[in-house]
Sequence to fold (177 residues):
Amino acid sequence: MVLVTIAALTYRLNPSKAVPRTYEIVIKPDLDNDVFHGQVIIYVVTKESLNGITLHSDELNITDVYINQIKGRYVEETEGRITVKYNNGSIQPGEHTLLFKYSGNFQIDSSRQSRGLVKALYDYNGTEKYVYVTDLEPNWARKVFPCFDEPQFKAKYHIKLVSPNETYVAISNMPEI
Fold:
């Protein structure tokens, strides 16, 4: 018999420190270059004084970070996590806004293994066409926007997709607002 002791699951975010309430996401795809540009505002409640707020981000190029409209910074951690910090001081308990500006690459789906925002090839009457889709489960939303990407974190989402031009149609499983 083998006995294994695990002290703590350190790859999980701690819900006793910070919890998201609402996300406001804007995504603008650049389909000619297989990239996208995004902005997300996350309304977060912190439950104690923190040196930083840790959340998920994977393969995103973050260009700007703000905490409560004050320029912040982020530190890349392991396993697809980042920690957002004030340049000076700690983050006090209460309600906060995190704003991220970023860009990322569409995953080119040649093997049906791509995750996040995906450019997938399909056959239409013998002609190769592309469709752009999302694959965010179980934990691939972090490839599309910085977030608390674990099932224990429930929040409201407001998503705006900026169409490259009027010939593109966006389809969702939720009603348009």
Observations:
- The mean pLDDT is 85.
- The longest strand covers residues 18-30.
- The domain at 18-105+142-161 is CATH 2.60.40.1730 (Immunoglobulin-like).
- The CA atoms of residues 29 and 36 lie 4 Å apart.
